[in-house]
Amino acid sequence: MKLPNRFFSVLLLCVISILAAAQTNFRTLALNEAIDLAKKENKLVFIDFYTDWCGPCKKMALEVFPQKESGRFLKQQIRVLKAQCRERR
Length: 89
Hints:
Layout: H1 3-19, H2 31-41, E1 44-50, H3 55-64, H4 68-77, E2 78-84
Parallel strand pairs: 1-2
């Protein structure tokens, strides 16, 4: 993925998280399991892609996801997963 695409992807995730109105409950499911569960519950799937070196990722983890309003919204509307991205070598 090119750098501008990564930037806009991270920006989109930030905006979605900020606009999302309890604490975020990240699930440890495989993507296919999350999609199947979301279909059964008529919900969307949100994946938080993050890295250890990503400043905006750390900020969201500290300031956005712990907010009760964010968690409440995400819990009601969306299945939330977390995926660590690593740099390819």
